[in-house]
Amino acid sequence: MRNERCIIIDKGTTFHSIAISHLVYAQASGNYTDFKMRDSKNNFTLTMQLGEIEDIIDKTRGVTNFARVGRSLIVNLDYVRSIDFSKDEFVLSDNLNFREKLGASHIALTSLKAAVEDRVKKTRRNEDE
């Protein structure tokens, strides 16, 4: 994780440094949050609500590639490969090692699509500068 942007979660008794490029999504599970990593062997769960995780991501300087999808997911936009409105699902993949389908409401998918499009526009704008 050297020279890689990280999200820092410090709970006093536990400390986690999560490489942004390795975090695929975070999913609410009651008072817990499940972290799904690019390498599934490194998945883990913390006793934190998803809203707390969202606040940490929002406060991490320069991190713009995450979006809230409905009430239960925060997704790394860099892994969104497709959105299927007819099935109310979307696919996350690194195009190499993993591929996962997740369900979401039509409204959440519309918001996700807008976030992906906005991210692409910003990336293109930065490349042109």
List its traits.
single chain, 129 residues, five-stranded antiparallel β-sheet, 2 helices, 10 strands, 38% strand
* CATH third-tier fold name: OB fold (Dihydrolipoamide Acetyltransferase, E2P)
Helix content: 25-40%
What structural class results from the helix and strand content? alpha+beta
Taken from the alpha-carbon principal axes, the silhouette is globular
Q: Strand share of the residues?
A: 35-45%
- Count of individual beta strands: 10
Order of adjacent strands in the largest pleated sheet: 5-4-3-7-6
* CATH architecture descriptor: Beta Barrel
Helical segment tally? 2
What is the CA-CA span between the terminal residues?
A: 27 Å
Main sheet record: 5 strands, antiparallel
Mean pLDDT: 91
- Low-confidence residue ranges: none
CATH class: Mainly Beta
Q: For this structure, what is the CATH homologous superfamily?
A: LytTr DNA-binding domain
N-to-C SSE series?
EEEEEHEEEEEH
Count of folded domains: 1
Overall description:
There is one protein chain. The protein has a single domain (6-128), classed as Beta Barrel (OB fold (Dihydrolipoamide Acetyltransferase, E2P)), CATH 2.40.50. The protein has 129 residues and is an alpha+beta fold. It has helices at 50-59, 106-128; strands at 6-10, 15-19, 23-29, 32-37, 44-46, 66-69, 73-76, 80-84, 89-93, 99-103. It is 26% helix and 38% strand.
